[in-house]
């Protein structure tokens, strides 16, 4: 951390700060410029948790230099981490393809979706059993019954199950049916949920909050990892901006930034980013070209009758056509489809 | 809802939609213009939950006309609602003043804070027992012990307690110590928490999510109210924008917008909006002048040693001076301090 | 400026940087911590304009410490500047009240507006002669004829004229009719226009760009001041965010931030921030309570027939009622209406 | 346009509006629902420019249905437009590759850059002669001398020249040296400049404003096209959001949205979006995969000594390596490099 002193601060101000640093077992490095005096803090800044230097007399501001996450950082694992989910690996040369409807609606619907996306090359079946909805009057999902149907459809087709948990008290039940938990955008900073999922050791897909910075997202991953669960996969699903042409704005730059700062795999959710099925192809190909490790896409046997997010779900033939194009772009950037 | 047809859509497309509307017990009103055909949907659109008109052939887009919240709307209670918290009323001519430290740190600290803010004119004591923090390595609060100390300090000084609950399984315990629950910005769309607080019937201070629209905020209030708890007070605490001079951007316009669309009282949290104690006075006075029903402000006996959010907490003398100025502005807009 | 070295950078990397600094006549102060080496740059960093330290081997990032504006800074004029416009002072105890229609539409309209706002207590008449419009097909203003009508109406009522110039080649003509130029939000970084207005020495009202940071805004003011024109008044008019309930989001925090960082007066434009006339009262009172030096408000004799921005213009009686309330809040914060 | 009436509006309110519409030669289609009455406006809404329906009694809001641009719309040219710049075509199967330094700094620098990017496969040389800079104290470019050096280097290597004009009075001079003008992000709504470039008939690269919606961008293109200049190419260069990991946030979704709404070609500027050279590859490949018609990239013979934007410029070997990868992704999506 660097402490920038105010124009006009006194030697006494500086001495006082150095004294506080010493009291916390930290060193100080003074840099007295023509325009400002700067104090570099030497040592482990976490010792300063209860010393609020920004409030001391003469201090202009404190500039953090290091990020607060450790296990999630690239430094801790320079070669990158590969998540393992029931024998499937996420983060290697092979892309991961997750697909399925927004919500589980019936046994027939989820089975038909599973068969369709499996045939297209997907290896994970997605489908919401618990649906967090903006309005209390909207369809909230089939709940536990949805988990069961997902499992059944996945087993029938040889897919893995990824599904959202929205509260920590669902973890035990959900763990019986899911291979991987999803933490939704609205819960990215539900720290109680993050910690309990960390303790469960179930692999997790961590979506980025709708207005979360990449740093906050990696701090959220750190909550899970600090409980001993390293099977974390990040999912960029669009951020909130002033632009309304798309439901959210896909931050495709998050791919190279995450690859640089973190060891965790990252996939793209073009469905929630776009909000309209006709933009999904462009965003999927962009994500893979940028270096993402896979895609999670909403696919429904009959989007027109879907009970939620209808406008952004692909039909099965559309998904099959998309996967072919994804394969071509993957090959162009040295990646390959799952086999 | 209005359905706008694509340029080039056919009569057959339109007929199909009208048919679907009829099948849902809804009427249609056609408006065939030179540039576009528009279909007005007549009746209760909630019946359309499983008909995804946007995906039907020939449809350009669907434009919602009505908002999705009802109990929280102004229409349902044109004179406005007044929340009742242990005999205190929020939303009438008298402002409510909530104050106290960011976090409860010790018995002495919270008692000193309580005495100071009481003397200044506050009627509610705030203080975090459970602190949601971006990093897992930061101070997370005194937890249940914090609730107890809050209650003790409040009882000793005649204040009401408002404190954050971060998970639905804390509600029973928290209800023993708190007069009012706070739902934090990160949990504004933790729907499980909202519903359970609704069922608890404990009055609630609902903070706006960091990137939530006013409509989403009112939908979140609707979650609580739809469970029978009408003692909801909204709290504007700044939104996330591109500007970094302040921690968040106080959306002072939310005050008149909420007053127009909703019957709920709204207060201002200048501390989290500003992030720096030296801007709090300006934002407090602005909020009251705009028509807010009160203020919640972070006050600490000794901010320099605070264990969290040190830079944004006022000292007790600063708070006392502020309340005087608030009183002057309140009088100028026909409001008054609590007595 | 501070240079943060990468984890793993070598002594050689550091030596190379120190050498480059010396070559530019600058000193270096090394701070070698457990986690990072930091180099404080001593001296006038503007000498580094052509040395791109961020690209040198081993450099993680460069952190600027000082802002780039000087004349606009608080440090240069700690007591604050008062702009002088034809005998009127902006920035002292008295507020400035600017008002008038969005656009000049006819001699009768502008005269009626001038008489109405003058009677209410305004001292400046506003009115667009040149209107920058999003679409080329929208009304673009009466142009030079508009300036003449403004002048005539102002002279008839004893008001000063403030009006927008949108291109540097209008300055000579506009200077004949205007007491103060307005630079609109879209032109805040039209540097050619800023420089020429600086040279013209005509007082200027500089609106904040729709997505400009406060730092960029002060840099824009610096463009004008660096040409010798110190009569600059800033105008906060709302920034672009994700919220759509208002046309823009009034950043009321900009008032205390500007007062801290800059010596320039700042006024509020609630009309463009709100976009709806029914929110203007709240925002006006909020701005004055926050410490702004005045208001610029759109007032039209008959808003329903206005040729632009109809929804956000007040009627003359509405404006008169508003000024009374502004006076009460002004008194509460130690300010007063112009006499 | 659709007019939504307030809950509680009267038949008289509606009659009055219908009357106003008739007075403007427009029809009305009433849709009386259980919750709201809606009036569809039939005919050319531009006739309503001076009727401010939103202010009429009983009106809740007006919802525009059609966009305001016509020449730039997809409807006007369903097969898409191909821009012609001195024999080069932009918008067909072949991508366009524009490259060169941020700023022209010397004859040697621009010639070396030209040779390097030409060898890599670029067909356009970029380079700023006039540089709009945030601070008045930063390097402002070589101005007209820069144009001359660009032309010379382009002629020596067989490249076309694209360079920014920042004021309409530079057009005549710039036209002698440039094959294509660039309108920078800060000038996207400098309507005077847009109109004059429209009249000049010189092909133009129109960058998106830093916080402009896609609709506003297409309206800006319409300004140019409405003067008879149809050789407009759009350039997405990142928008301003809350995320600070990159200089701006590349809105890659703008590619499919623009392709759907507009007939104009669109290219990507990954350099300004990323702000860091190490992210440029990811963003370039993402842009091409998404369907963009080309790339404009900052390339400098020696970025470390560049006089502006050093951190985001590629070296010539980096650019050459990038073009190879771009070629592979282009082939995967059915496009090809220029030959």
TrEMBL record, chains A, B, C, D:
InterPro entries: Aldolase_TIM, Class-I_DAHP_synthase, DAHP1/KDSA, DAHP_snth_FXD, DAHP_syn_2. It holds the Pfam family DAHP_synth_1. Keywords: Transferase. It comes from the Bacteria. The keyword Transferase applies. The keyword Transferase applies. Its EC number is 2.5.1.54. Residues 91-322 form the DAHP synthetase I/KDSA domain. Residues 1-66 form the DAHP synthase ferredoxin-like domain. One of its GO terms (molecular function) is 3-deoxy-7-phosphoheptulonate synthase activity. This is 3-deoxy-7-phosphoheptulonate synthase. The gene is aroF.
